[in-house]
Amino acid sequence: MYTHHKNRLLKKIICTSLATSVLTITGCGGSTDEPNRPPLANTGADISVDVNTEVTLSVTASDEDGSVSSYAWKQTDGPSIGATTEKQLAVTVVNTPVPKIVNLSPDFGVAGTEVIVTADSMIPSNTQLKLNGISISADDVTDSQLTFKIPAEATTGAVSLNYQEQISNSVIFEVTLKGLIAQSESGIIADELGTEVISDYILVAITEEVSSKTEAVRLAALIGGTVIGKIEELDVWQIEVTAETVADLEGFIATMEAESTVRYAMIDSNITGEAVDWSADPGRPQQRERNRVEEGVALYEAKVNRSPTESQLLPFFMAIGISESGIDYDVADFDQFLESERPSNSASCVLFIILENLSTNIY
Q1: Which residues on adjacent β-strands are paired with residue 205?
Q2: End-to-end alpha carbon distance in the chain
């Protein structure tokens, strides 16, 4: 290319790529109006050298309608090698070694698990990460540590670092679906009654005939979710979703329950125990009001005392023994002791916990 100045001096520049450098040549030509012919540069054949070997890069240049006035080398990649304005550039080829992985924390987990890779030296920002051959983007790189999350499609395999076509050592990460990932601190929302539920995920039970990760992934895709965990004993899959309201979660549940392979789907609740001071030993009416016994019995009647196909209660709650007709509030308290004779409140506490679990787990 050229730049035409007022004095009609034509300055010509040509760039030629070397192994790690760019050579810029400036040539000066006459002031005629003839078409400009750029200078020619020849850097020779490509060179391959061993690490820590000095090599001299040379160039020959000519300009048919002028003369070459200067040379300039510019490095485009790799460790700094300096610069020169001469025809020759002496370079010692160095190779920054890829960091070695010294620790994975944790080294097993479900999809979505955050993993910290610790290396024995600083990890360059453009270092690539792979898990069992799958490239994974790092969430954060700080000095000798790199953080990433296990993707949904990942399988058990080797974690390695790749830097400038060098591959580090590898450490095995076991991808498992045993257990559930805890909700995030911000993943709690409340319904109109004030009951807190988890917005990060829903739980879906798949029929035994087709229960598999493949089917769970298919179902998750229907609601834009990701399979992140599993309760092995119950064939219950944890599907990460994005929800801002309980209505969003209920929509996901409806979509899941419309599938023939789904036994039931459930919104998980944020259960926190209430600290109750029994030292004052309030009377029976106050205890019943505080423990919401009547609400619990009504809830049991509405959700459980129905045909199996209509019941909204999870199967592992079915063994809870509560009278189908409710509780007779005129008899002695639940542990069969009169109020003045009752040595403890254990039975009332147990009933309260059971009913509280029922009321916060069913939608």
Answers
A1: 236, 264
A2: 72
How would CATH label the architecture of 101-175? Sandwich (2.60)
pTM over 0.85: no
147, 116 in Cβ contact below 8 A?
A: yes
Could you report the per-residue pLDDT of 299-330, keeping only the tens digit for each? 666 665 555 455 454 444 433 444 333 444 44
What integer pLDDT is reported at residue 180 of this predicted model?
67
Calculate mean pLDDT across residues 67-93. Answer: 63
Q: In what order do the strands lie in the sheet with 10-17?
A: 2-4, 10-17, 21-29, 66-75
Tokens of 285: 């009416």
Q: How many CB atoms lie within 10 A of CB 291?
A: 21
Domain 188-269 architecture = 2-Layer Sandwich (3.30)
Give me the residue spans of the domains in the chain: 2-93, 101-175, 188-269, 284-361
- What radius of gyration do the chain's Cα atoms show? 36
Are residues 25 and 71 in contact, defined by beta-carbon separation less than 8 angstroms? yes
